[in-house]
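Quick start: what a row looks like.
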Amino acid sequence: MCGFMAGCALVQLKEEVAQSLASTVLVGQITTAAPERGVIVVAAYALDNDERIIAHYSVLHASGDFELMVPEGSYYVCAYHDNNSNLVYDPGEPAGQYGEPTPVTAQAGGVVLEVNFEIPEKGGAIDLPIGSEIASDTPDQLLSRQAGA
């Protein structure tokens, strides 16, 4: 039984290493002057025939550093204060995005640094439509993925 379990663990490790080598980490910092209610949701999404496909998202307890792991491709990065913690970009939630928006090119096995932007105090328009659902399965409690949280 132990040999079988060890073999399964090695297969899973091999799959995780392959996924890691094919992925890119987007690293940045979000600053905000907006009052922080709820959590900050930061997301990387790709465009597919005008449909926004969320590649990865992270929940932050406060403005600061974030990391998103995405497959090779081109992504837009945005963030918003999720005042009611429902993982939906609702009307009136302050938001900001990287660039105008500006796509970030992620090459396999790399790191993209300085994906920095601000969530303005009065909100701000982002390319993610109001009502966009970041994840279809909202956990009971949104835990911050920020270091030290």
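That is the whole record. The beta strands are 23-32, 39-48, 51-60, 64-71, 73-82, 95-97, 104-106, 111-112, 117-119. The CA atoms of residues 47 and 119 lie 22 Å apart.
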